[in-house]
Write a structure and sequence with these properties.
By secondary structure, the protein is α/β, with parallel strands linked by helices. It has two domains: 197 residues, inorganic pyrophosphatase (n-terminal core), CATH 3.90.1640; 125 residues, Diaminopimelate Epimerase, Chain A, domain 1. The chain has eleven helices and eleven strands. The strands form two sheets. Strands 6-7-8-9-11-10 form a six-stranded mixed beta sheet, sandwiched between helices. It is globular and about 55 Å long. It binds adenosine monophosphate and manganese (II) ion (MN) (2 copies). One manganese (II) ion binds next to loops. GO terms for molecular function: nucleic acid binding. This is RecJ. InterPro entries: DDH_dom, DHH_sf, DHHA1_dom, Oligoribo/pAp-PDE_c-di-AMP_PDE.
Length: 328
């Protein structure tokens, strides 16, 4: 089934001359790694492939600032109508909220690994058993008979290592390690990626983390571990929204936690009064994507998120009630 889907996507890519690649807003390592990896692959095949990210995504999160995505477009290309549009790592089309990609007549290829993917493309390869979208791009490299170059391998390795939580989440299986081995053979450096992505934190991140850890709260006998970051926390530490990445993972490491929750104020002027909620499930007992979907978001069973206008106490009540229901 998925094999056939992958072949269909490979056929689409093979027969397109002009393409536009994009990924979800607030791009993470898998989003950017897949985007860059597929871009390099298509360029190797001689295609006119462009990448698109909205202007407000810049600057990119600190850990990805070194990624060579020069030339990425921030506005629709004039020849958009001639381009095959490829969405990467997007569970639904609203994950890239720009209108021009919804125009009539645009042909969409959807490459993703979210189990709740809405299959919004004309052609879709959706494989929830893939550890990351970068894994699907890696399979496309083979399917298209391309050469895995060092820059491609490094981009895909970043997607793999971030989406698997450095090979420690439940989506880490033998295939993730086989992919890693092949990427390393092709030139990806685990040490260099680790230094760039995980060990070059701007100091403001540690200050923001300290604030988050200082006010951790636990509910329901420790089943829910949560914290909150206010607009003031960001302003006073000089942090931007991407600097809160990873804080929720500290909460999931607390013994007894079934679900970790980070609530943070959104900073953009047009999002004042809205909060972003990140949910992480610890042991497979709770499907956090169900909770996120019920509140207008989505994600994976183990990692999901949503944006809400609910006040923090009220939204925590909702999350607690849903976690309680799922745990019986
Ligand atoms: P985050 O908590 O932002 O790191 O997001 C965790 C995962 O949840 C992401 O990898 C996405 O798959 C998903 N996700 C986050 N926010 C949303 C949203 N607003 N809509 C759909 N999926 C989301
Ligand atoms: Mn992602
Ligand atoms: Mn992903």
């Amino acid at each position: 089934m998925v094999g056939t889907e992958l072949e269909q996507v490979a056929d689409e890519l093979r027969s397109a001359d002009k393409l536009l690649l994009t990924t979800h807003e607030n791009p993470d390592g898998d989003a950017l790694g897949s985007l860059l990896g597929l871009h390099l692959l298509l360029r190797q095949l001689g295609k006119d492939a462009a990448m698109f990210l909205a202007a407000d995504e810049f600057p990119l999160p600190h850990e990805y600032r070194h990624l060579p995505i020069d030339g990425v477009l921030n506005a629709p290309p004039t020849d958009l109508a001639e381009r095959l549009v490829v969405f990467l790592d997007c569970g639904n089309i609203d994950r890239m909220p720009v209108d021009f990609l919804r125009a009539d007549g645009i042909r969409i290829v959807n490459v993703d690994h979210h189990h709740d993917n809405t299959r919004f493309g004309e052609v879709n390869v959706v494989d929830p058993s893939a550890s990351c979208t970068a894994e699907l791009v890696w399979r496309l490299v083979h399917e298209l008979g391309a050469e895995l170059t060092p820059p491609m391998a490094e981009a895909l390795y970043i997607g793999l290592v971030t989406d698997t939580g450095r090979f420690m989440y439940r989506n880490t299986g033998p295939e993730a390690h086989r992919m890693a081995a092949e990427l390393i053979e092709a030139g990806a450096s685990p040490h260099a990626v680790n230094r760039q992505v995980f060990e070059s934190l701007p100091f403001r991140r540690i200050e923001l983390l300290a604030r988050g850890l200082q006010r951790v709260q636990r509910f329901d006998d420790g089943a829910i571990t949560t914290t909150y970051l206010s607009r003031d926390d960001f302003v006073e530490t000089g942090a931007d929204e991407t600097d809160s990445e990873g804080i929720v993972d500290h909460l999931r490491s607390v013994e007894g936690t079934a679900v970790a929750v980070l609530v943070r104020d959104l900073l953009a002027e047009d999002r004042a009064g809205l909060r972003k909620v990140s949910l992480r499930a610890v042991d497979g007992e709770v499907d956090v994507s169900r909770i996120a979907r019920g509140l207008g978001g989505g994600g994976h069973t183990q990692a999901a998120g949503f944006t809400t206008a609910l006040e923090t106490p009220e939204l925590l009540e909702r999350v607690r009630a849903e976690v309680g229901e799922q745990r019986g």
